[in-house]
Amino acid sequence: MKRLVTSLALAASLTAFSATGVLAAADAAGGPSSDDLLKSATNTEAVLTYGMGPQAQRFSPLTDLTADTVKKLVPVWSFSFGGEKQRGQEAQPIVYDGTIYVTGSYSRLYAVDARTGHKKWEYNHRLPDGIMPCCDVVNRGAAIYKDKIYFATLDARLVALNRETGKVVWNKKLQEYKEGYSNTAAPLIIDGKIITGNSGGEFGVIGMVEARDAETGELVWQRPTIEGNVGTLNGKDSTVTGKTNASWPGDMYKTGGGATWLGGTYDPETKTLFFGTGNPAPWNSHLRPGDNLYTSSTLAINPDNGEIKWHYQTTPHDGWDFDGVNEFVSFDLKKDGKVIKAGGKADRNGFFYVIDRTNGKLINASPFVTKITWAKGIDIETGRPIYIDDNRPGAPATADAHDAKGKSVFAAPAFLGAKNWMPMAYNPQTELFYVPANEWGMDIWNEPITYKKGAAYLGAGFTIKPLYDDYIGALRAVDPKTGKIVWEYKNPAPLWGGVLTTAGNLVFTGTPEGYLKAFDAKSGQEVWKFQTGSGVVGSPVTWKMDGEQYVAVVSGWGGAVPLWGGDVAKLVKDINQGGSLWVFKLPKA
Amino acid sequence: MRYALRHMGIAGAVLAVAAPALAASSPSDPLKSVMWDILRDQYFDGAPVVFDTAVKVTAPAAAEDTRAVPLSVDATALERVVEMVAIADLNPFPLVLRYHPGNAAPYIATRIKIQQATAVRGAARTADGVWHVSGVLVDAAGGGCSAPPASYAQKDWADHVGEVQARLWPAGEDGVARLRLRIRHPNDTGLVDGIPAYFVETLQVDAQTPGGSPTLARIDSLEPVSENPVYSLDIRPPPDATALILRGRDNQGGEIRATIPMPLPDAKPAISLKPVGQPWSVGQ
Prior knowledge:
In chain A, 7% of the residues lie in helices and 36% in strands. Chain A is mainly beta. Chain A folds into two domains: 1-30, no CATH class; 31-585, Methanol Dehydrogenase, Chain A (8 Propeller). Chain B is mainly beta.
């Protein structure tokens, strides 16, 4: 850690000599309250939460930047993350009180002056050699609350730092990294509790949602996502998740997967947490007959005690690695003259789901990619997919014989998903979702497998293939009322970055080719772009400072595509790596 | 001793006048280190400073291993020592540690990294606010602070980080007992490319007694202390102590905790490392 003694001393002397300075400094030192975090979606002066609001709509009410004025958006400064650790940069910056808090690859956290790009401090987490992140050494962002800033690390720890000094306040082990656990998602802070999920879905771990006291880091409750496992509340066993062996055979629920690796969202209106769960383990579905609850699902959870209110399983008995982790975004669905408390989810399996967020009942589900081979559609009455049985990879031979693999199938979407982790945005003015989608399929087959702690628990082989010659990525505007695609932007490389939308009728997202791009939110017309020097796979944010609208995004190519992308990895192998934070503004006229 | 007393007299006189005059009249460094003026202002913060051979600093004349140079600072010849520091002048991080002996004897020994040949100092602050400074020159080949630690080559360092080996010897007639601590920790300085700063920051020894758990001594440890840091202290456990509790933390929030049993009744006191003939006076 590097300390900045001089500016601290300066801050101290300012508070001592100026009466108004004392007040301002006291407010700033107090930091964002629980209430500030709940109302963060409408706060245009700061970016206090991952998702730009607990509902994660990634919508800003700012209107300075429009399809016209965006042409004058210019870079202000760029900050390098330094070192040789230039891997995927998937973070969303947090902006508060003139400081940007941003995480980098390899579990690094930076505090940077938002006006100048001057580094205030850096925390560089010492990682053991044996960490096992499945899909690059990324981090998706920090959480701010009162005087602290928090982030999770690749060795499955949660670190709380003083946000002024960068000094560690506490550092708690979330899970055992040697068993395959890691953590890459941004934590969520609700009513003084810091809520996290876990990673490690490829290693047969048990998915978990956990709440800790944000002041002390002490555990409040745990909710395992796989039925048959027991939760805890205030240090005691609470309730069993689901009903033991209702949808899992034998002991398999003990290594059932369902990792909550993308974290969650929160709806203040219904006081509900929404956490998506990952694929069941192992990948070979023939070993685990049943629905395998609650894998590949969205769970609605009571933030006070960790009890499950409802669940919706997008891919029951998954056989294609269709994680259900993708974010569930609460929004008001205006349909037939009514306002329905709904939520939207663009699943890896290719369907866009609109769900009643008060009870988990399906309202509609429609494809948001051109090709889905594993299901004909989703039955609106039952909420279940209408499977195409032939498209399930076959069972492997039972013997340990050489080449015992089962029947290979070509399935679409690929296991990296019609949409992967990269968060979509919802614009309440256009009433459209903006979904970063990818068009790809895969050959997939099953192989014999046994579980070993800390080893990959797949039982499958696979290779990804693009569906079209001219594009893989597609940013699509989805109308949740009809499921129709209103417009699309096609991108040669797969899209892997988050989306931002604004009341100025704009949509921002990054591309692996290195651009941050802006689109007209109604027409989809590209209205601005800027080359950042490396692939953009982070999530852009916007805020207002000193009367000017700012935009920030991280640049640095990486993530799962170059590691797992098969044929696609070849297409992107010439993209240079990087690691920097870019800040833009619309200068005053 | 006479040399020291003379300078103490000066320091006392200065103390009565305004603080800024101190720096100007501060005695010149017997070790003639180019860093002295800067380090004095940085670590003694305007307090009166005297060079005093009553503080015994023991370190080898030439370092065999620049990543682990034994160093002891013994201020037991002074009365009422409240704080001690160790400094290696030409290290990128000169301050090695600060020791708050409480009611322990003002003695601490450890092993440190040395970046190049340097003056190595020990200082003790007495209750009157005066820093008593002494030191030796240690010759060394370069690189002790910026070479990767040996643990970097071991894949399993993370399995053992924070583990404690400790031994407490029985107290002598003066009630002083030798405590030796060894903590598994890479103690990375942050100067090695690609390895973040990661070192033991605080350590505290408490006694477990029926009436509570008084703190016996406290160390603020820093980057220059060697990998797998070792500390020897001369503490005074209360007679009714049932065990000692070691609590500590590294700069990344990693916790260190150990319970150290009291020595067996028939164990012999540790062999003293103190020079023979030195008056054995312990400050209170």
